[in-house]
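Could you please consider the sequence and fold appended to this message?
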Amino acid sequence: MAAVNLKKDLIMTTHQLLKCDGLKSISIRKISQACGCTSAVIYRHFEDLDDLIFLASIKFLENYVFQIQKIVNEDTDPIVMNDAMWEIFVTEAFDNVEVFLLLFFGERKDTLTEKIFEYYQMFPDSWHALGGLFTSIFFHNNLEERITIMMTRAAAVRRINFKDIKPLAHLQCELFHGMLNDYRLTYRQPGKKEEAITLFMETLKSLNEHYTIS
């Protein structure tokens, strides 16, 4: 139990360092000093520094999970639901651009499902009451495939054409990735987060209108 608690403490401490100082400032030495342990202890619980950082970064998704559970309803128009989910998602993403680039577009992105499940096992109370639709979306490893799930629902109720599912999902994902990169160096500046969210949502809605069937 002590080992489990220490691992959780290391994750929480690393998360706080990421939140306050940013990704580039993180080091094993800084984490070990903040936790009052040696670097050897950290390596007993994690493969390497990147493994610890990746797990700690997942905590940045908690508020997204909490907020989205309030709106997910399988009876809601899929396009409306997709826009609402994106707005919650980008509100978190443009507050922590480097972390979201790491989670969804970094070298370890293919391990995201595995790491989310590992995190969920350690902190189950943080993400309680996950519904069926939300679970199928949230625990999917690939961001574009998550969007494809929503676009497939939209096609099923004739809000978009089936032939447009993949292109629209791809374009939404590319819009998100591109804007994260655009704001990567400036997102901490006053007003930049709000600017990015507004621009993303306006562009997303314009894109969706092009494909949506009236």
Observations:
- Residues 2-21 form the longest helix (20 residues).
- The chain has a mean pLDDT of 88.
- DSSP finds twelve helices and no strands in the chain.
